[in-house]
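Q: Protein A?
A:
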Amino acid sequence: MEFHREYYLKMADYCNYQERCTQEVLTKLQELEAKAEWLEPILDKLRNENLLNDNRFAHSYARGKFRFKKWGKLKIKYHLKQKQLPQAYIIASLAALNQEEYLDSLKKMLEKKVNSEKLKNNLSDKAKLYRYAVGKGYENDLIQQVIQSLWKD
């Protein structure tokens, strides 16, 4: 039973350091070679003490990746699915992103790319911009809309 407490304390520190999801905690426990029968009690205790909350993690992750890495919703959604989070949490976290801020971020990012690489209003440069935005995880129709507006002015 003492080992159980030791693993719990390590996971409590792990969750206190940064927001974590259940999958990350399970992976860490397996790396530490915790016994299988200890996993659920440790996870339950972390949840009861509000150190582990997948919904909160999904919101925090989506906000952070959007604000700091300028990721689009598709890339964020893909990475949240990789963390085996419930679909409802993923949908809610993406819906919580400010749509106006989201569109503005895409515009600024593409404008910066156009200016830094001195891109012209031709098909190959538009394709380059499009691929860049797709790689960041933005939606196709939104990308096309912003690219068209860049050279409309």
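Q: Protein B?
A:
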Amino acid sequence: MFDIYTIIFLALAVFIFLRLRSVLGQRTGRERPPYDPYSAREARSPVADKVVSLPPRPAAPADPVTPRPVETPPTQPADRWKDIADAGSSVASGLDAIIAADSSFDAKHFITGARTAYEMIVTAFAEGDRRQLRNLLSREVYDGFDAAIGERERRSETAESRFVSIDGSTITAAELRGRTAQITVRFVSKLVSATRDRSGNVIDGSADKVTDVTDVWTFARDVSSRDPNWKVVATEAGQ
């Protein structure tokens, strides 16, 4: 039989069990697992549970890749030398070679300059202006002009030339020889020209008659030089 003390201890045990049950609660299978300090680096932060996920940012377009230039000569338009040279002609090919070596070359600008130089040289020769001629002619051509002027001076003769017009200036040849560009131009002009003796009498040409003159001159320039000026390297009478 249970004595009074056994009954009291049983009553106390039941009482303590019921109190612990009410405080700790019952297991339902949904309890959080015990804390594992070694898995803390993988646990989500409580703050992370409150962050609203944003849609992924669209990837920025990749920078376009610039292809490396192909080392081939650029295709030129068929009418590149329109009004200057026929497409596919030797003159056009020569001009292509010149501009490939000197990108600043402008054929129309060249022709304008050549017309100006032509008029200046003819006038300077008539006036015996050696200084002007030296700036516009190659050494060999200058020597020829200088000799003619000297011979005229020895005979006490004078020359006069007056341009009425330059009716044509056509490139008839063009080529690149090494670093030297050469362009030949055919000039067609109207000119009043006369030579007088020491007494002033006209001994050659006419002081008032307009004459048609055709000259074929060749200009040259070193394309590697900073000097943009062209000089006359050859002259001849044209047909």
